[in-house]
Amino acid sequence: MILQSYQIKIPAKTGNLEVIRNFLISSLQTLKFSEEELNKVLLSVDEACSNVIRHAYNFKENQIKIDLKIEKNKISIFVTDSGKGFDPSKIETPKMDEYLKNFKVGGLGILIMKKLMDEVEYDIRPGSQNKVKLVKYF
Amino acid sequence: MILQSYQIKIPAKTGNLEVIRNFLISSLQTLKFSEEELNKVLLSVDEACSNVIRHAYNFKENQIKIDLKIEKNKISIFVTDSGKGFDPSKIETPKMDEYLKNFKVGGLGILIMKKLMDEVEYDIRPGSQNKVKLVKYF
Amino acid sequence: MSGFKIDTKKEESVSVVRISGFLDAHTAHELEAEFQGITSKGDYKILVNFAGLDYISSAGLGVFMGFIELVRENGGDIKMCEMNVKIYKIFDLLGFPNLYEIFDTQAEAIEKFKD
Amino acid sequence: MSGFKIDTKKEESVSVVRISGFLDAHTAHELEAEFQGITSKGDYKILVNFAGLDYISSAGLGVFMGFIELVRENGGDIKMCEMNVKIYKIFDLLGFPNLYEIFDTQAEAIEKFKD
Ligand SMILES: Nc1ncnc2c1ncn2[C@@H]1O[C@H](COP(=O)(O)OP(=O)(O)O)[C@@H](O)[C@H]1O
Ligand SMILES: Nc1ncnc2c1ncn2[C@@H]1O[C@H](COP(=O)(O)OP(=O)(O)O)[C@@H](O)[C@H]1O
User: Fold this and answer.
1) Distance, CA of C86 to chain centre
2) CB B14 within 8 A of CB B64
3) CA–CA gap between residue D106 and residue D50 (Å, rounded)
4) What are phi and psi of A134, to 5 degrees?
């Protein structure tokens, strides 16, 4: 059962990443997340939004939507874009040993989300809505 | 022409007034408002939202929506509720001399909005959407 | 995060109420409860020190209006001090300085209560 | 309002880059430009002081990865110091401490560059 819903819809530009983080901080402040857990949520959503700005929209300004659903034992955050979409199953998870040895750059965003959140799930429908769901349990 | 749109949709409760103010602060931070003008916007929106929480919804939790439209020479903020509505033409503007002399309480919210914003306009449709538009020119 | 804080201390016969943070429709009831507590003890000389206050909305103003009559009927007053310019502008916008005495310093205000 | 700040000073032969605030996809290019400036002058001993840094996302991490190879090929290094626990946890999550030396104090790090 969803107890509370928060939504923000704003221009997808890197200057708004801070707006999004601040929105989450103030929306989540009454929940009993530790600061550490809150930081995990902030960073994961930031990564999802940075991907939308860069990959979904290629830095062309468009809208990004973030929905926060608070339930009794978890929060779910949906980051939605109307951009070009992609096939998440084709994205390889970087092996960090090799990654670091070969001085790779980029490609860490989804890995970070997966490491920090309890669930990460993409629902890609190019031409309509692409969405990533990020879940964290209390 | 609308250059940028920001929207937030959150539970209408007094604890979220701060969330709303923070959302506005971060959404407006790149515009060239003076701090004084920004404060006028914050207070006016706070008054509109406090009215929604108290009068439209009688403190029963429901959603409140705030839309911010940024144009070249002005910002417009729409505060929307789906509550019981009212007839703005029936609201008397308090005369502050008498008000203070008679130790009145309350009834200052709309006056504050009118004094601080360049335009204040209600669009009341009980049963569907009640909206107040607050405009400030640069 | 920001919140609202109240700290009341008796200075001579005056109840000095230091308020800080954000006084809005969410926090106004806290100040109301404080005023209730003070006046119910029969103390009617109230000085509100605004030094730490960052924000006030009409819900906050309503608290002062809700007690001023009672306080004055009992020979007391609500005076104010150390208000920053941002807050003062809101008071001024509505003519509140005609009803409430606002002092720069706490000492001046306490002195004035002795008149 | 938070923003991101960089301040670079030469200490002996080491370019000490103090970063503070929020290093995300919006501000990462500023650090990139700073590293570009430093390395293009032929300076490859870079110490990043994280004392003031509140936040880092993968865009920020990418800046370090983008320069480490060049810097090491030129006999230099990017070392790090005074990282708070919050930031260190992100580095640690991805194994970055295997690639970058991270020191508690700036003095230790500068000393290490002399080896
Ligand atoms: N919202 C999105 N829209 C389109 N493509 C995306 C989106 N999110 C991720 N991707 C794709 O997934 C890849 C991996 O993303 P990520 O792990 O965050 O690393 P990076 O963004 O640094 O490439 C991206 O390079 C991009 O091709
Ligand atoms: N969103 C709203 N929904 C219903 N009634 C409203 C709304 N906003 C204002 N009102 C009505 O207008 C009146 C005046 O509002 P205001 O000037 O803000 O003072 P106050 O809220 O202190 O009464 C309220 O008492 C209420 O009857």
Assistant:
1) 16
2) no
3) 10
4) -120, 125
Angstrom distances, CA of residue A31 to CA of A5, A126, A137: 13, 34, 12
* Residue from A35, A50, A58 whose CB has the most chain D CBs within 10 Å, to mutate: A50
Q: Could you read off the pLDDT of B99-126 as tens digits, one per residue? A: 999 999 999 999 999 999 999 999 999 8
In chain D, at which residue ranges do the beta strands (DSSP E only) sit? 4-11, 14-23, 45-56, 77-81, 102-103
Residue C32, in any domain of the structure: yes
Residues 94-123 of A with CB under 8 A from C: none
> Touching B: which chains, 3+ CB pairs < 8 A?
A, C, D
Question: Can you give the pTM of this predicted structure?
Answer: 0.90
Rounded distance from Cα C56 to ligand 1 centre (Å): 44
Chain A closest CA to C7's CA: distance in Å? 23
Interval between CA A137 and ligand 1 midpoint (Å): 25
Query: Sign of dihedral through CA atoms B58, B59, B62, B64?
Result: positive
pLDDT digits (tens, 9 = 90+) for A119-134: 999 999 988 999 999 9
Within a domain: D112: no
- How many separate domains does chain D show? 1
Q: For position C97, which CATH number holds?
A: 3.30.750.24
Residue D51 three-state SS: strand
Q: Is the minimum CB–CB distance between C90 and chain B shorter than 8 Å?
A: yes
Looking at residue D66, its amino acid is G
**pLDDT exceeding 70 applies to what percent of chain A?**
100
In a domain, residue C99? The reply is yes
Contacts of A48 (CB under 8 A, 6+ apart): A79, A109, A113, A132, A134
Q: Looking at residue C2, what is its pLDDT?
A: 61
C6 contacts C106 by C-beta, under 8 angstroms: no
CA distance C6 to A60: 48
What's the gap in Å between C105 CA and the centre of ligand 2? 36
Comparing C-alpha atoms, which of B93, B87, B77, B91 is closest to residue B123? B87
Question: Is the interface score ipTM higher than 0.90?
Answer: no
Q: Which residues of A touch D25 (CB under 8 A)?
A: 14, 17, 46, 50, 53-54
The answer to whether residue C30 is domain-embedded is yes
Domains for chain B: give ranges and CATH numbers.
Answer: 2-137 (3.30.565.10)
Radius of gyration for the alpha carbons in chain D, expressed in angstroms and rounded: 13
Write out the residue range of the structural domain in which residue C13 sits: 4-107
